[in-house]
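REQUEST
  id: r-88c1
  op: predict_structure
  target: GTPase Der
  payload:
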Amino acid sequence: MFTLVIIGRPNVGKSTLFNRLARKQMAIIDDTPGVTRDWRETEGWLLDKKIRLIDTAGLEEAFDDSMRGKMRRQTELALQEADAVLFMVDGRSGITPMDKHFANWLRRQDIPTVLAVNKCEHENAAAAGLAEAYALGLGEPLPMSAAHGYGLDDLYHMLSPYFEEEEEIEDAAASFGPSLTEEEIDALEGNDDFDLSAIEPQVDTDTIPLRVAFVGRPNVGKSTLLNALLQEERVMTSPEAGTTRDAIAVKWTYKDRLFRLVDTAGMRRKARIDDRLEKMAVQDSLRAIRLAEVCVLVLDGNNPMEKQDLGIAEHIIDEGRALVLAINKWDAVEDKAAAMKRIEDRIEASLGQLREIPVITISALKGKNLEPMLDLILQTHAVWNRRVPTSRMNRWLRGMEEQNPAPMANGRPNRLRYITQIKARPPTFALWVSRPGDFPDTYKRYLINGLRRDFDIPGVPVRVMIRTSKNPYVD
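RESPONSE
  id: r-88c1
  status: 200
  body:
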């Protein structure tokens, strides 16, 4: 697939164009320079051409280990993926010395480059910047407006000589009916009401990646963990908290299983968040949780299961996602037995609604115990997808009722009539009772615990919906 890398100095509108071509809000946009730090990719559309888009951090003249230097190196890594480069400058502010510096650098690269002068929605305001852009030596500048979609047709024609001729391959599987593709899933990501369980019957593990989100407090090692799995510096890491802002998704394969790993921004308590960019980053992390299948809650082994960790875990459970606890920096923990006892006690006291949460100790920095963590993710995902035959469940329901009948309702029995699993991801059951309004939560928890125990559904959310049959004589 044709790959277009968008580069330029900070705050020229790269992420705005990225979101427009992706046709959904993916990158965080703000007037503050330097919002984007890691490069991120997605599939998008330039008119009728499907392309691979890469959004990069703002180009900076920094060559040390500072934050600006790391951002520049991330951009250089992204350029290795490029079939063509879109170099953006700001038409309103004109050509700066930094633009000239990086234009000289781009001319030495063996990559087709298109020079785009952004923010040209008003010709008079950007006329000076458009005229100055000829001096950069990158050919005729393209006036455009990423915010308004102006100039995209001209961009298509300037890039069309570099598009590869795609062979039309007949899909032999088409005769078996349409299948849900990853592009269709991505198209649904912009819909806040979208639930992955809606596509459950069409899931194909060969083409649909298992979506795993690494979440947690700031500076617990989420980005280091992603880099350790990929064995490359795919995302920036720093001792400074809050390095990651955008949720960065990367495709990866483990044991012939396709994954989509998502590194998210650290989440602090709302009361401590007063920065606008941090609020936007946290919202992006919450969206990543909602779209994930398995959430790996990364904990700091030296300070595990803080109040914020518990809050994140509860949010994951409420969203119905599978949860795995990964205790990072375990090699630096001195009293491992005491630390594990504290974690178990906090889970028992605060997350009692989810029994047997899978827990694993790792060291992302040293690459220890990462394969067992991935195996645990696959096992948990399988449990999250588990289905139980209706006949077995109703025989089980009779036994549970005989062992412990539901409390009486106004002196009359509240009979359990029928139960069936209405969906997986997470396992969700519908229970028909004679008087749903008088059905206590304590008895529902009794049934949920029995479902976990007798049908081997540990460590994932289990939901029971209480229903009643319609009375045909009510009218």
